[in-house]
Design goal:
The complex is a heterotrimer of chains A (361), B (364) and C (310). By secondary structure, chain A is of the alpha/beta class. Chain A is built from 11 helices and 14 strands. In chain A, strand 6, helix 6 and strand 7 form a beta-alpha-beta unit. The relative contact order of chain A is 0.12. In chain B, strands 1-2 form a two-stranded antiparallel ribbon. Chain B starts with a strand and ends with a helix. Chain B has a single domain, classed as ABC transporter involved in vitamin B12 uptake, BtuC. Chain C has a single domain, classed as ABC transporter involved in vitamin B12 uptake, BtuC (Orthogonal Bundle), CATH 1.10.3470. Chain C starts with a strand and ends in a 14-residue tail after the last helix. The chains are: A alpha/beta (361), B mainly alpha (364), C mainly alpha (310). Chains in contact: A-B, A-C, B-C.
Chain lengths: 361, 364, 310
């Protein structure tokens, strides 16, 4: 076994690479970009959407960019190794697409100062680490409006993956929007404790349907709840991808993760040297969150209302979390006209007033 | 017609040759699979088996093999003792989880104090956590005759639910923005199981794995208990006449394997992994069962089998990134490798003969 | 009938559907284990059944053909296992684990390109007047036909094991393979057939997830059902009707906890999720403590390698 130390090696690799770049024409070699995914790209949800965006990005650069992926990477030690492998293989920009990779990204970035890292949904930055996430709650505010208008039983069902801020934020946004257009609305929430277990999601959907909900929202990946909604004759919203195969009902609209523009921008920035470490949190306005086509199953006036809200959010004139808003316990959270700051949103661990159930502890 | 004749002792020759044969056949079959997927077969095999060992980046991949093989070997050594005696602990995954939880809990209880004795206490807690979890099936077996295969397997699911609960509840990082998972022990010097020599991958868990190999070897070859284990496995009735107490053997084998699995979990959570999270366990406990059998339940064999498994993991990742092989292809490939290795085991334990020939020998 | 905000009739009707995959897989595994073979590869056979059934159903537009293909896929997997453990005498525990690994990988490879595809629907069986019977009609007579197939398989398995010569031979092989061999039974053949039945049932169970319960294809979608099936066989102490009970309890706990949440009742999810496994251990202990191994139903040769020495 060779006893060379790691840092000396990678530093040496760096200088060799740098001198190589100096002598060789840069255009000849494609710019290498790596991705790691926590699950399989065939999951049809979160990882699938990232991978679709990767492919679109690669196509956009038409041979000037070459991407590699490592999928099914468990969080922890394996993530750090996968990231290091990608860096050693000459990738100059690496996207890590799961929250749980956070510490591994920071550790790897320290070892490879010349490589740029992009970490999805995390909160730790470094000179060569950016974070990016989407304001999905904006999308949930839009479909929450539709849900509030569409429900006849005044009961909206919500399937949550895990009780974490990301999901709680979405529940609150949807509830606030629905309540604004329909003061009698009630939100029934079921935690599946999984991001993607189709069987369990189906059970969760059925439980909500039997509890009387006639609009279903989900923050899990599979189309299983869609199938249940269809059988029950109620409406639902696509999640992560468009889920277009369930148009026009039960799928009346969708929140789509659209990473492609971001991947193109950041890859371009890394190629031309303008890349900087930033914490990006984009929403509808920047195109990272897309609202899937609102089908004709939705009355025209409701559709128009939803689209108007979407436009106002995109322009920034409407912020979903704007006072007066109270927390669930009745204490004042936001005063009239006051909007929530990003820090509070990022760590949101409470429901707003009106939601009946408790967040599991 | 072919028939099988059990060898009185496993053949040393075939025990050494069959793994090589199996690996070669896996390469052929795997090559076909990769070719069907439209990937260059020879290159794929080279990337998986050669590059981690001798490739350009082996200064990194070789230490990583230690990191990956360490827990597998440590757990498999413990399991092999029981397997030899006919005691089936297949719940090492649960014992691994419980060891990690107990060890991490000790560390988090002291956080942020820095003392030299924190890490040793964690090690004891980790071993104890795994030991207790394994003693549940042992005690049930001794007291009631309950099947230990099934109890130990059931306890894996219980442990997974406990892991989920502590990651969301008592051990959650209070500064983690509400996300599940504990503090990162890598950032807590007194608790961190760091590389003993930086960037070699050689952390205490790997040291423990090597010690376990040596210990198991000595135990099995030089110690009365090792002798009892072997007798109990080969001739249970004879063992009883020879005064071997089945209860003691059960407690020892299950307890030891549990403690070693717990240690593996502790070293992992304090070292390479860093934190408890609902997805902390990645199947080492189950893979170790396979490693134990690939190693023919022999300490040295397990050492080699652990490295072979680690090689396919790391080579598999390399193949993903350099050849765009899907990770599923690697999984299927690993499955095939195991099939071939298990199948060829036949040759070390049995003689393959023509029926006529065998009949003649009996007639003599 | 409402108890604590939960409609019991609907709960039972739903848990029957939710439990069908694990019921099918557990019924098959029961037969395999009764013959003395412990196949830990149930998860791998289920997921292969899920994808084979899905592909066949999508291309033929027939769920029935899909289920046939699923059974075939499960059988193919089980034959790999049989080849290794029966002919080549490999260790069953390790081979089963390898089978699961292999199945998960292969299914994902075969399933590439089937994300987002919708399979043909499997309609509920129309049982006419039976559906109108209060309570019982709602619980029993408004399901798709695979639910009835699964119940039929449990009954058939029970009857065959208990009343037929084939069942007797199977049990004899599982109890004492050396004695069965001495009596002239072909131990390996019996076990291979039992394994194939187990594979077929696991395949059907997998396809029930991908074709009826969800219906869609995504990688690893069986999500551990195969392991639950293994637990159920133990819980049932190797008796078919208890497998039915066990499957409904295991499936029912998941359904119940989701329903309690939907009814707004706060519950410790993890505690409830681990409860069936704790109960299984308890059942094991009680049975083994009370009447010893023979009454427990555990096949005495379970997991042991058979090699005819004479």
């Amino acid at each position: 076994m060779k006893r060379r130390t790691f840092l000396a090696q990678s530093a040496a690799a760096g200088t060799v690479l740098a001198s190589g770049l100096a002598t060789r024409a840069m255009a000849a070699d494609p710019f290498k970009v790596g991705y790691i995914y926590v699950g399989a790209v065939g999951d049809g949800g979160w990882n699938y959407q990232h991978d679709q965006a990767r492919l679109a990005m690669e196509k956009h650069f038409d041979g000037k960019v070459k991407t590699s992926i490592i999928e099914n990477v468990p969080e922890g030690a394996d993530a750090e190794r996968a990231l290091t492998q990608l860096a050693l293989a000459g990738n100059k920009l690496i996207y890590a697409t799961s929250f749980g990779f956070m510490d591994a990204v920071i550790a790897t970035a320290k070892k490879f100062p010349q490589v740029k890292f992009e970490h999805a949904t995390g909160y730790k930055l470094a000179p060569n680490v950016s974070t990016y996430s989407a304001r999905f709650y904006q999308g949930r505010y839009v479909i929450g409006t539709i849900a509030g208008r569409m429900t006849k039983t005044n009961k909206i069902g919500y399937i949550g993956a895990f009780p974490i801020p990301e999901v709680i934020r979405g529940i609150n946004a949807a509830y606030i929007a629905a309540k604004k257009v329909n003061p009698d609305v009630e939100m029934k929430i079921v935690w599946a404790y999984t991001w993607g277990d189709p069987g369990k999601e189906a059970d969760a959907a059925q439980a909500l349907i039997d509890a009387g909900v006639d609009v279903l929202m989900q923050h899990t990946d599979s189309t299983a709840p869609m199938a249940k909604a269809k059988a029950a004759g109620i409406v639902a919203f696509g999640q992560a991808s468009d889920m277009a195969q369930y148009k026009p009902t039960p799928r009346i609209s969708a929140i789509i993760d659209n990473w492609t523009p971001y991947y193109i921008d950041r890859t371009k920035a890394a190629m031309d040297g303008s890349w900087k470490s930033e914490a990006v949190w984009y929403g509808i306005g920047e195109g990272m969150v897309k609202i899937g086509e609102i089908t004709d199953a939705v009355p025209a006036d409701v559709k128009a209302e939803a689209l108007k809200i979407k436009d106002e959010i995109a322009k920034g004139t409407l912020k979903p979390f704007t006072g007066p808003l109270n927390k669930q316990d009745g204490s004042v959270w936001l005063k009239d006209g006051e909007s929530a700051d990003d820090g509070t949103l990022a760590g949101m661990n409470f429901y707003v007033e009106g939601i009946k159930s408790d967040i599991p502890k | 017609m072919l028939r099988l004749e059990k060898r009185p002792m496993p053949s040393r020759f075939w025990t050494a040759v069959t793994p090589v044969l199996a690996v070669i056949l896996t390469m052929v079959a795997g090559g076909i699979l990769f070719a069907l997927l439209g990937k260059p077969p020879v290159e794929a095999i080279r990337v998986i088996f050669w590059d981690p060992l001798f490739g350009a980046n082996n200064f990194y991949t070789l230490p990583q093999m230690l990191v990956k093989a360490g827990p597998l070997i440590l757990i498999a050594i413990g399991l092999s003792l029981g397997f030899r005696a006919g005691i089936w602990n297949i719940g090492a995954e649960g014992q691994y989880i419980m060891g990690a939880i107990c060890g991490a809990a000790v560390a988090l209880a002291f956080y942020p104090a820095e003392h030299w004795y924190i890490f040793p206490l964690m090690v004891i807690a980790g071993a104890l956590g795994g030991w207790i979890w394994a003693m549940i099936p042992a005690v049930l077996k001794i007291k009631f005759g309950t099947n230990e295969i099934l109890v130990s397997l059931m306890l894996v699911y219980v442990a997974e639910n406990i892991l989920s609960w502590v990651s969301f509840g008592p051990l959650r990082n209070p500064q983690g923005y509400g996300f599940p998972g504990s503090r990162n022990l890598q950032q807590y010097p007194s608790a961190h199981n760091a590389d003993l020599i930086p960037n070699t991958g050689l952390h205490w868990g790997v040291v423990a794995a090597f010690l376990a190999v040596i210990g198991a070897y000595v135990l099995l070859n030089r110690h009365i208990l090792g002798y009892q284990i072997r007798v109990a496995g080969q001739a249970p009735r004879a063992a009883r006449f020879a005064g071997v107490s089945p209860s003691r053997l059960f407690a020892f084998c299950l307890g030891t394997s549990g403690a070693l699995a717990g240690l593996a979990g502790l070293f992992e959570v304090a070292g390479p992994s860093g934190q408890l999270s609902p997805d902390f366990n990645v199947g080492y406990g189950f893979t170790a069962i396979i490693v134990a059998f690939l190693g023919r339940l022999h300490p040295v064999g397990i050492l080699l089998a652990g490295f072979l498994m680690a090689l396919t993991y790391i080579g598999g990742e390399l193949a993903q990134l350099s050849l765009n092989l899907p990770s599923a292809a690697i999984q299927a490939f690993q499955g095939m490798l195991l099939f071939f290795l298990l199948a060829f085991d036949l040759l070390s334990n049995y003689r393959v003969r023509w029926k006529e020939h065998a009949a003649k020998e009996i007639a003599k | 009938m409402m108890i604590g905000g939960i409609d019991i009739v609907v709960l039972i009707a739903t848990l029957m559907v939710a439990s069908t995959p694990i019921l099918l897989a557990a019924t098959g595994e029961l037969v395999a284990e009764k013959s003395g073979v412990l196949n830990l590869g149930v998860e791998g056979m289920m997921i292969m059944g899920a994808i084979c059934g899905f592909i066949a159903a999508v291309h033929t537009d027939s769920p029935a053909l899909g289920f046939l293909a699923a059974a075939a896929g499960g059988i193919a997997m089980s034959l790999i296992f049989a080849l290794l453990t029966q002919l080549l005498l490999s260790n069953q525990v390790a081979t089963g684990l390898a089978l699961t690994l292999f199945g998960l990988g292969l299914s994902s490879l075969v399933g590439q390109g089937y994300n987002g595809v919708k399979p043909p629907p499997s309609p509920d069986v129309n049982l006419g007047p039976l559906e109108q019977i209060p309570v019982i009609g709602d619980i029993l007579f408004r399901h798709d036909w695979m639910v009835y197939v699964s119940l039929g398989l449990v009954a058939a398995t029970w009857a065959v094991l208990r009343y037929t010569r084939a069942g007797l031979i199977l049990r004899a092989v599982g109890e004492n393979h050396d004695a069965a061999h001495a009596l002239g039974y072909r131990v390996r053949l019996v076990r291979t057939l039992a394994l194939a039945y187990g594979g077929a049932c696991a395949g059907l169970g997998g396809a029930y997830i991908s074709l009826v319960r969800v219906p869609q294809w995504s990688d690893g979608m069986t999500a551990g059902s195969g392991w639950i099936a293994l637990a159920i066989v133990v819980f049932a102490s190797w008796r078919p009707w208890r497998v039915l009970l066990g499957a409904y309890i295991f499936g029912g706990v998941t359904v119940l906890q989701l329903r309690l949440q939907a009814a707004g009742i706060a519950i410790p999810v993890q505690l409830l999720s681990m409860a069936p496994y704790l109960v299984t251990i308890l059942v094991l202990v009680i049975m083994s403590a009370r009447r010893g191994r023979a009454a427990m139903g555990a096949p005495a040769s379970l997991g042991r390698i058979f090699h005819a020495s004479s």
